[in-house]
Amino acid sequence: MGVRGLQGFVGSTCPHICTVVNFKDLAEHHRSRHPGCTPSVVVDAMCCLRYWYTPESWICGGQWREYFSALQDFVRAFTAVGIKLIFFFDGMVEQGKRDEWVKRRLKNNREISRIFQYIKSHKEQPGRNMFFIPSGLAVFTRFALKTLGQETVCSLQEADYEVASYGMQHNCLGILGEDTDYLIYDTCPYFSIRELCLQTLDTVMLCREKLCESLGLGLADLPLLACLLGNDIIPEGMFESFRYKCLCSYTSVKENFDKKGNIVLAVSDHIAKVLRLHQGEKKLEEILPLGPNKALFYKGVASYLLPGQKSPWFFQKPKDTITLDRQVISMSSDPESKQEVPMCTDSESKQEVPMHMNPESKQEIPTCTDPESKQEVPMCTHPEMKQKLPMGTDPEFKLEASICTNPEIQPEDPMNMGPETKQLVTMVSDPEILKVARTHHVQAESYLVYNVMSSGEVDCSNTLEDELDQALPSQAFIYRPVRQRVYFLLLGDCKDGTSTCPAVKEWFVYPGNPLRHPDLVRPLQMTVPGGTPSLKILWLSQEPGIQARRLDTLLACFNLSSSKEELQAVENPFKALCCLLIYLFVQVDTLCLEDLHAFIAQALCLQGKSTAQLVNLQLDYINSRAVQLGSLLVRGLTTLVLANSACGCPWRISDFMPWNVFDGKLFHQKYLQSEKGYTVEELLEQNRSRLTKFHNLKAVVCKACMKENRRIVGRTHWNSQHTGRWGRQSPGSHRTSSGYSRSGQGQPWRDQGPGNRQYEHDQWRRY
């Protein structure tokens, strides 16, 4: 994350650029200079997750009540001194950064393998040095912050650019995060979340002006330095020989400087003493060994230019552009620059698609054709959304449109000026539906829905899964049929009534997946009683009975339409949990009665426990299978968020937020007790009022499973008849379903050859 070697250089060689500051003092100073203006801090939430997650236990699936309480304390600390927080989350991975994303996910896989090795050897949680954030933490943190009344934004590109733009344009106190890219952007001050003391609100400010002074550079030189050192766009090895030559010619090396520190100083010295002699006279490719990487390098430098900023290192006239594949890289973000409107060829249609320029950002605005008017409608990136838009509201809501006819009306939109050109063609052509999906995405009120509809590409990071466990499948496969039905719902009418829908590209991490290419997953047609309603009906209609249709559609996503009556009888917040448990136990036949008892018992006992009681709960030991089951359930809750969002929110979001239905340690305790043969009364801690609820919930799950010919049996009975059918994938193989699929439910996905894996009707059925 950030610029290679810069964090270490600052710590070892330039510690004087770090200054201890106090947020309360900064806020008071801001108010004195700007009376009537609330001081604000823009937060890069993705950088902060591991610092926010303070619970001691992280291995069991997450201590969500404790985590929610920690977030509450964080917000209160800033609110108490009158500081407003604005939280930004990554909404998608830009194509130029996918390789880096894959590299980190594969590294995480190796770390997870070591975690499970440790658990099996020591039967305890590893130390904090092996800490791995619980599955779903980023997704549920968005909803937690919204529950706490905080302004939360989900980006339309990687969040760091939007964070830097917002901070600059809204005169923020600064940016709170942990990413050296914020030392490169010419924006408001950058504060470290790692150094933050919440009790005193002291932290460290990293001063880019002092960094420039130490390196002999100007602020406008920092993007060039970042790209020569390597960042998320420019691979570290691309300029390795160049850096080595700089190091050899650098004469001011001191013995106490580490090698990476030397490299930062050497490259800076070369920029200041050699390259600057030709600044404005020669093109970068004439003074740097860019070779075939010229376009990528220009893109890397331009990615740091915020609205209204230029780079003195671009020799080209303002109207010039560099084309990289289907992307057009602007050489300036200055609204005064009069750039030509380039034409970009769509490789699918072989037609030229005009790219309209946003005069504020000089970012190319992709266009889509309105089927009614036959006119091109420019698509502009999102404004700062302040108005809540619930599903099913009047379509004439007073919000800036995601499809707008005049992009000049948003002069302060921090997200208009992204360095990465947006998709030329979206998966869905209905501008009204795209507008609603986009609004919910930006306001962090949905999950993956807009990604599917706009780019047709989704991703899911690592999950705590044991690659050596042959009995439990990866969550990526268990929940894939649900996602496929959601894809059908979102894209079903994408081809004007034809039966074929485009495949969705899934970058899902699972054991054995080398992530060289995305899995191509085709939508799976589903059966909804009364027919599958359109998105306009699900999202915008306020007709009587629409909530029932939304619920019918949601249950159809999980293939549970036949269990609607039983599920409706379940009280909140257990309705969504029951839906998830039924789906899990039908899909995975290695789950047994003891597992069901543990899942239900922990949900019931959780309702009567305080956060302090959960903190003090102690486990006898850690079981690797229970660790994986905890993560599996939490990933199921994120899948519920996706399906519920796509169906127009028939269920309250709060009913499947983990702090209301799941606690990792508590589940682990119930799992261990159930495995030892504890009675139901003992599992429920001798609380008779929970006993009736337990048997009711168990009956709902078991009855629904029996409708699918799935009888849930105890572990002893199961072991005598089954050996388990779920096998892990090796890098050179693909998971296949050994067993049967019930009639009409499709076929196992098939190997289409390396790099072209297309999965359709992906039913992971029981053996």
From TrEMBL:
Keywords: Receptor
InterPro entries for the chain: Coact_PPARg (IPR026784), PIN-like_dom_sf (IPR029060)
Region (Disordered): 350-376, 718-767
Keyword S-adenosyl-L-methionine: no
Gene3D superfamilies: 5'-nuclease
Sequence intervals crossing the membrane: none
Keyword Nucleotide-binding belongs to the record: no
Biased composition (Basic and acidic residues): 350-363, 758-767
Polar residues biased stretches: 730-746
PANTHER family on file: CONSTITUTIVE COACTIVATOR OF PEROXISOME PROLIFERATOR-ACTIVATED RECEPTOR GAMMA
Family: Belongs to the constitutive coactivator of PPAR-gamma family.
Name under which the protein is recorded: Constitutive coactivator of peroxisome proliferator-activated receptor gamma isoform X2
Species of the source: Galeopterus variegatus (Malayan flying lemur)
Gene designation: FAM120B
